[in-house]
Design goal:
Layout: E1 2-6, E2 11-20, E3 23-31, H1 35-48, H2 50-53, H3 58-73, H4 84-93, H5 101-105, H6 109-115, H7 119-128, E4 132-134, E5 140-144, E6 152-156, E7 168-169, E8 174-175, E9 177-181, E10 187-191, H8 194-210
Parallel strand pairs: 6-9
Antiparallel strand pairs: 1-2, 2-3, 4-5, 5-6, 7-8, 9-10
Helix pairs in contact: 4-6
Length: 226
């Protein structure tokens, strides 16, 4: 008796094989699998196809990207680079007792990774690379992160009234790219220098949009620049 990983179903199965020399005469499945043998088979399966064992949710992938971006922007914070190998090792550390890829994907991989950090570094991740930002008007906007590019925050022009300069993250080293949106949600301007937008470009945007969207506020001078 032994155990194998069925690729089609993504699960461990217990098997019993009858051989004559090296010729397989009969194979039966459905048997109980020894815990240690199951762990070994699950670990090998994770290492062979890690993409099937890691969480698929976009929220998790976004969190990983935030971590990696901050590690690049502010290396002195002590965040490790979080390579794909680190994700695989975290999944492997949780594979004992698991019999399917689905069970591994649902395991607390994020907690394992955070558990390797001291308290100060864990707090820095959410503080210096926040998932969202509250705007002056009270709305919350998600920050988009992408390796090799500055972070992006998209918001309607009216929601940015009162924000005079582009917010900075990563201990103040990285300015957000601001996508200023019309009321219909389409970008009207993209800038990493919000102050320049208010002083040099806002009047033209106001002229273009206030006729199309008269129910929205289009003050001649945006708050903070009266």
């Amino acid at each position: 008796k032994g155990a194998m990983f069925d690729q089609a179903s993504g699960r461990i199965v217990g098997v019993e094989r009858h051989l004559f020399d090296d010729l397989l005469l009969e194979e039966k499945s459905g048997f109980e699998v020894d815990r240690e043998r199951g762990r070994q088979v699950m670990e090998a399966a994770i290492r062979a196809e890690p993409s099937r064992a890691l969480p698929e949710e976009q929220e998790f992938r976004d969190w990983v990207t935030r971590w990696r971006c901050l590690a690049e922007w502010a290396p002195d914070l002590g965040l490790p680079a979080l390579a794909e190998a680190d994700l695989i090792e975290a999944a492997v550390s949780l594979c004992e007792g698991k019999r399917t890829f689905d069970e591994v994907r649902r395991a607390p991989i994020r907690d394992v990774l955070l558990g390797r950090l001291d308290h100060r570094t864990r707090m820095a991740l959410d503080r210096e690379a926040p998932e969202r930002m509250t705007l002056p008007g009270g709305r919350s906007a998600k920050i988009r992160y992408e390796l090799g590019r500055p972070p992006v925050l998209a918001a309607r022009v009216q929601d940015l009234f009162g924000l005079t300069d582009s917010p900075r993250i990563a201990v103040g080293r990285t300015a957000l790219v601001i996508e200023l949106l019309a009321p219909n949600g389409r970008p009207v301007q993209i800038t990493q220098d919000l102050r320049s937008f208010w002083t040099n470009t806002y009047q033209q945007v106001r002229k273009d949009l206030r006729g199309r969207y008269p129910k929205h506020k289009w003050p001649e001078h945006p708050p903070g620049f009266e």
